[in-house]
Design a protein that fits this description.
single chain; about 260 residues; alpha/beta; TIM Barrel; about 45% helix; about 10% strand; globular; binds zinc ion
Length: about 260
C-alpha cells in the first residue's frame, strides 16, 4: 500500500528551488504526468493562496488522478528567523497561536471551497503543527493529517494521522546548488545528506519491508525537488519501482 504525497507551494515564495525551476505547480504537473504513466495515485498538499492566485494552473492538476489537500494558506505569511524563534518559544510551534492557526486553516479551507473542492486532508508547511492544530482540524472537519515523521503506523487521535514513514527527499538528498544559506532556516537540517541514489535504495528497502509487514508506506517526494535534482529522471525510476504496488490517496485510508 503506497500513499505517495507531495508538497506544492505558491509560486511567489521565491525560495531556493523556485529560483531554479520557476513555478512549483508546473513541476507538479510534470510529476503527475509521470505518475499517470505508471498508474499511481497521489495526494498533493497545496497552499490555499495558490487556488486563488493560480487557479488555471491548479485546474490543470485536477485532470490527473490526484487529491489536493491543504498546506497552510501561504507558509505562515511573512516569516523570518526572529518570528519563528518567538513563535516556537511562546507557542511551542512555528504555526503560532490558536487564533492564528484557526484563521489560517479557515482561510485555506475557504479557498478550497470557493474553488469547488472539499479540503479533507492536510499537511502543515514545515510540519509546523502541534496539538492545537490537530484539534482545530477536527473542529473544521479536516479528517486526515500527514504531519508526523518517523517509523510510526497510521493512527487515530482527533484526526486520522498518516505519518510519513519513509525518509523525505528534501531533508535527505544532497543535490545541485544546495547551500546551507539557501535553506529555509526552520525546514530541516542541511548536514549529513546522502546521494540521491542511496536515498532511493533506502526507500526501496523500507517499502519492501512495509509491504511484508502490511504497513502502508506514506511517502513525501516534492515535485520541485525532483525537478531540481535531475529533471525527474530519478523520479521516473522511483515510480517504476512503486508501480508494483497498489497506490491510494490519503483520504482513501481506513484503519
Ligand atoms: Zn511546505
Amino acid at each position: 500500500m503506497i500513499y505517495l504525497t507531495g508538497d506544492v507551494h505558491f509560486s511567489n515564495l521565491n525560495n531556493h528551488e523556485q529560483k531554479i525551476i520557476g513555478s512549483e505547480i508546473d513541476s507538479a504537473e510534470k510529476y503527475l504526468n509521470i505518475l499517470k504513466k505508471y498508474k499511481l495515485a497521489c495526494t498533493l498538499f497545496v497552499n490555499g493562496i495558490s487556488l486563488q492566485k493560480e487557479p488555471d494552473k491548479i485546474k490543470e492538476l485536477l485532470k490527473y488522478n490526484v487529491e489536493l489537500g491543504g498546506h497552510t494558506y501561504d507558509n505562515f505569511g511573512k516569516m523570518n528567523l526572529l518570528k519563528s524563534y518567538f513563535y516556537r518559544k511562546k507557542w511551542g510551534s512555528i504555526y503560532g497561536s490558536n487564533h492564528y492557526q484557526k484563521k489560517d486553516i479557515t482561510k485555506t479551507k475557504k479557498a478550497f471551497e470557493e474553488f469547488g473542492l472539499k479540503m479533507t486532508s492536510w499537511r502543515t508547511h514545515a510540519f509546523g503543527s502541534n496539538d492545537l492544530t490537530f484539534n482545530l482540524l477536527k473542529e473544521l472537519d479536516v479528517k486526515y493529517v500527514s504531519d508526523l515523521v518517523g517509523d510510526i503506523k497510521p493512527f487515530y487521535k482527533e484526526v486520522m494521522h498518516m505519518p510519513i514513514n519513509i525518509p523525505i527527499d528534501q531533508n535527505t538528498i544532497a543535490y545541485g546548488m544546495l547551500k546551507p544559506e539557501n535553506r529555509n532556516p526552520f525546514a530541516s537540517c542541511t548536514k549529513c545528506r546522502i546521494k540521491a541514489e542511496e536515498w532511493f535504495d533506502i526507500l526501496k528497502k523500507r517499502v519492501i519491508e512495509n509491504e511484508k509487514n502490511k504497513i502502508p508506506s506514506i511517502i513525501l517526494i516534492h515535485p520541485a525537488t525532483m525537478m531540481v535534482l535531475d529533471n525527474f529522471k530519478l523520479f521516473e525510476e522511483i515510480c517504476k519501482f512503486l508501480s508494483k504496488y497498489k497506490s491510494f490517496k490519503i483520504s482513501e485510508f481506513k484503519l
